């Protein structure tokens, strides 16, 4: 969406993801991370960090915020994976979109019908926006689909890839444990360097514009590739190097402008807390095997690891 319709719906969500609200739920994120690390410890060594930490942490948090039963996480994880898989057959994509929307439609309808006072995002929007006619049920379902998918797939992949990168730089991993106050800057550099959204953002020029010495005429299409922008030597010194002490705040891993990711304060908090607690609890963490290539999801819109066996 663009223009007034986009602004109307985005305004309804902006307050939910403001930094002060995310700080309010940081104890919940920390508790979720602690439980996941307990499970990692109980499962190994060795144990799969993706299975026990990277996937469940953001899934649990977004389910709690939205008011979606975590017991159903297997259902929506499978369908969200299909939706961002570029190689998935179209008929499967259509079926999984329909199944996910039907699931969330039933959930939203139940919240509207009961008028429950639950303190979750979908209940609040159902109570405060749908009941007043400001928001249609189908619009709320669309919001729920977007937030549920974006709220766990991206952060899960960032946790796994960031851990692997830090384990390949043991001094950086140790510094994270010894100097957790530096974690915010480190998170920005990880977001810049890894740039897990691997597909370009298609855009249509509404007027003639020059970009990098190239004229794009009104009506022509262009694709903005975030990962290339985050390696732009005009914006970053030595852009192909991982430098945890770099001032990387101007990266575009979350996009830019009116469409940039609304959930970025939440994603930053989850990544920071997960990495700091992992370094604190598992100071001797290392990959369980250096042989062979780790399984990755190369066909996905969001790049990530399918597994990361670790030991300690």
3D architecture notes:
The chain has 312 residues and is mainly α. Helices cover 55% and strands 7% of the residues. The protein contains 13 helices and seven strands. The chain has helices at residues 3-14, 19-24, 26-43, 49-54, 56-66, 73-83, 90-114, 121-130, 137-167, 170-178, 183-194, 226-229, 264-281; strands at 47-48, 201-204, 209-211, 214-216, 221-224, 286-287, 309-311. The strands form three sheets. A three-stranded antiparallel β-sheet has the order 1-7-6. A two-stranded antiparallel ribbon has the order 2-5. Strands 3-4 form a two-stranded antiparallel ribbon. Helix 11 (183-194) packs across helix 13. It is globular.
Largest sheet: 3 strands, antiparallel
- pLDDT < 50 runs, ≥5 residues: none
Helices, by number, come to: 13
| DSSP, total strands | 7
The Cα radius of gyration reads 20 Å
Quote the average pLDDT: 92
| Fraction of residues in helix | 55-70%
Span between termini: 47 Å
- Portion of residues in beta strands equals 5-15%
Written as H for each helix and E for each strand, in order along the chain, the element string is HHHEHHHHHHHHEEEEHHEE
- What would you call the shape? globular
In order across it, which strands form the biggest sheet?
A: 1-7-6
Q: Give the class from helix and strand content and strand pairing.
A: mainly alpha
